[in-house]
C-alpha cells in the first residue's frame, strides 16, 4: 500500500495542469497533517510538477521533457524577475519559445510577436492588447499597471500578463542568464540520466536467501545487490564478503550490511564515480527522497557515460567575475559563502579546480583587505581538493591569517559544504599597498 506521501504525489499528478494547490486543501482532501502535505508539495516541486510563485501560490505545471529543459515556463520567469501577475494566471504553466523587446513601432513589434512568445514592453496599452490577441504573454517593465479590460483578456486567453519594476534591458539580461544556466545544466550528466531503472535492476528482499544471491550473481555477474523491505525501501546491501562461509538457506536479512551508501537521481556523475573509486564498489542503489529503490547504477554505466561526455564551451563572464560576484560575507573577515552556479562547474557538473582556486584566492584577498594589509599577489598556492562539490551546493569559505609581515602574508583557507570540509588551501602571498 502506498504511503501518505506517495498518495499526495499521485493526487497532484492527477490534477490538471494549471490547477492551484495549497497545503490546507491537500491536508483536508486526503486527511493528512499540514506537515505531511507541505513536505509532499515540496517534493512535487523538486520533481518539477508544481511551481510556487510569490503572491500567487503553488500551481500544477507540466513536467518538462529533458530535450526542452532550456525553455522557461512563465511561472519561472516571474520568480526570476520578481514579477507580479496582473492577469492570466491559468497560463503560468506554459513555456515561452522566445521573447521580444517592444522598443519599436507597433507594426514592427507585431511582426516579431507570435504565439508562445513573451513581449517585454513598457506602459503601452495597445501593445499589450495586440500581443495577447497574437497568443503571446506580456511582461510590463518599469512597475506599470495595465487596463482592466486587458487583464480580462489575459484571463480569457489564459496568457499571463506580468509586471516588474526592472527596466527592459535588465529583464532581458536576467531571462537570458536563466536560459543560459538551463542550457549548461542540460549538458551535465546526472545519475538519473544513465542508471538502470527498478524494473530492470537486480535486488533482493529481506525474506530472500543466500541461494537467491547466487542466482542473481550468475544472471548479472555483479557481487553487490541492494536489499529492500516490503515497501521497496533500501534498508541494506549484500556483497560477496557478507555470504562467505554461510549456508545457502540463510535469510538475507541476517547477513546484509545496514545503512548502505546510496545516491539520488540528481546526484552528478562525478560524485557517484568518486564514490565508487573511493569506496571500491561496483553497484550503488539509486533511491527517492523516501529511500525507495528507483534502480541501480553500475561501474559500467559510469564508464560508458564518461566516454561519451564532451567538454562544454565556456562563454560569458570570466571565472574571476563570477567568483567575485557570488562570494558574499557571512561574517566579514571570518567567513564567506557562495553557491555553485553552472558557470562554476566542469564538464561533469562539479566545482572545477580553477574555480576552487579562484574562490580561496578571492576570500584571502578580502581577508587581507579587512585587516588593511594591502592587495594580495599569490606567490605560492597549495590546494587540497578533498571531495567533489555538486552544482547548486552552498559553500562556506573560512580564511585564516597565519602570518603577516610588511611585505608578505601566509593564509590558510578551509572550504565547507554543509559543515563537511571539501577542500583546503595554503597561500603564500606578497602584499602590495596602493
TrEMBL record:
Pfam families on file: 4HBT (PF03061), CBS (PF00571), DRTGG (PF07085)
Domain of life assignment: Bacteria
Claim: NAD is one of the keywords in the record: no
Transmembrane segments: none
Domain CBS: 195-254, 256-314
Protein keywords: CBS domain
SMART domains linked to this entry: CBS
SUPFAM superfamilies given in the database record: CBS-domain pair, HprK N-terminal domain-like, Thioesterase/thiol ester dehydrase-isomerase, Winged helix' DNA-binding domain
PROSITE patterns: CBS
UniProt xrefs under InterPro entries: CBS_dom, CBS_dom_sf, Diverse_CBS-Domain, DRTGG, HotDog_dom_sf, Ser_kin/Pase_Hpr-like_N_sf, Thioestr_dom, WH-like_DNA-bd_sf
Cited PANTHER family: CBS DOMAIN-CONTAINING PROTEIN, CBS DOMAIN-CONTAINING PROTEIN CBSX3, MITOCHONDRIAL
Protein name: Transcriptional regulator
UniProt organism field: Virgibacillus natechei
Taxonomic lineage: Bacteria, Bacillati, Bacillota, Bacilli, Bacillales
Amino acid at each position: 500500500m502506498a504511503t501518505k506521501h506517495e498518495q499526495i504525489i499521485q493526487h497532484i499528478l492527477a490534477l490538471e495542469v494549471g490547477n492551484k494547490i495549497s497545503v490546507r486543501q491537500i491536508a483536508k482532501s486526503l486527511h493528512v497533517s499540514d506537515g505531511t502535505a507541505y513536505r509532499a508539495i515540496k517534493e512535487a516541486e523538486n520533481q518539477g510538477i508544481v511551481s510556487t510563485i510569490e503572491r500567487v501560490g503553488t500551481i500544477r505545471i507540466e513536467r518538462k521533457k529533458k530535450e526542452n529543459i532550456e525553455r522557461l515556463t512563465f511561472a519561472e520567469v516571474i520568480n526570476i524577475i520578481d514579477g507580479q501577475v496582473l492577469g492570466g494566471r491559468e497560463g503560468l504553466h506554459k513555456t515561452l519559445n522566445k521573447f521580444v523587446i517592444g522598443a519599436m513601432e507597433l507594426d514592427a513589434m507585431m511582426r516579431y510577436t507570435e504565439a508562445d512568445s513573451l513581449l517585454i514592453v513598457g506602459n503601452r496599452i495597445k501593445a499589450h492588447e495586440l500581443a495577447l490577441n497574437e497568443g503571446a504573454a506580456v511582461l510590463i517593465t518599469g512597475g506599470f499597471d495595465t487596463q482592466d479590460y486587458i487583464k480580462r483578456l489575459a484571463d480569457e486567453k489564459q496568457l499571463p500578463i506580468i509586471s516588474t519594476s526592472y527596466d527592459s534591458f535588465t529583464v532581458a539580461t536576467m531571462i537570458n542568464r536563466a536560459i543560459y544556466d538551463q542550457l549548461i545544466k542540460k549538458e551535465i550528466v546526472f545519475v538519473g540520466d544513465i542508471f538502470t531503472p527498478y524494473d530492470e535492476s537486480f535486488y533482493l528482499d529481506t525474506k530472500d536467501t543466500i541461494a537467491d544471491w547466487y542466482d542473481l550473481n550468475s544472471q548479472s555477474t555483479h557481487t553487490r545487490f541492494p536489499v529492500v523491505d516490503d515497501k521497496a525501501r533500501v534498508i541494506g546491501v549484500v556483497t560477496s564478503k557478507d555470504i562467505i562461509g554461510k549456508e545457502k538457506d540463510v535469510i538475507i536479512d541476517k547477513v546484509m550490511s545496514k545503512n548502505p551508501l546510496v545516491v539520488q537521481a540528481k546526484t552528478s556523475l562525478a560524485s557517484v564515480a568518486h564514490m565508487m573509486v573511493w569506496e571500491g564498489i561496483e553497484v550503488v542503489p539509486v533511491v527517492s527522497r523516501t529511500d525507495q529503490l528507483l534502480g541501480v547504477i553500475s561501474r559500467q554505466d559510469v564508464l560508458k557515460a564518461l566516454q561519451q561526455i564532451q567538454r562544454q564551451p565556456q562563454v560569458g563572464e570570466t571565472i574571476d567575475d563570477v567568483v567575485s560576484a557570488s562570494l558574499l560575507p557571512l561574517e566579514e573577515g571570518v567567513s564567506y559563502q557562495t553557491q555553485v552556479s553552472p558557470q562554476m562547474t566542469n564538464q561533469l557538473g562539479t566545482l572545477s579546480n580553477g574555480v576552487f582556486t579562484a574562490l580561496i584566492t578571492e576570500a584571502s584577498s578580502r581577508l587581507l583587505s579587512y585587516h588593511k594589509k594591502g592587495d594580495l599577489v599569490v606567490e605560492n598556492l597549495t590546494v587540497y581538493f578533498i571531495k567533489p562539490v555538486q552544482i547548486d551546493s552552498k559553500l562556506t569559505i573560512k580564511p585564516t591569517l597565519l602570518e603577516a609581515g610588511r611585505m608578505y602574508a601566509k593564509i590558510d583557507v578551509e572550504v565547507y559544504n554543509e559543515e563537511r570540509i571539501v577542500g583546503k588551501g595554503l597561500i603564500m602571498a606578497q602584499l602590495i599597498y596602493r
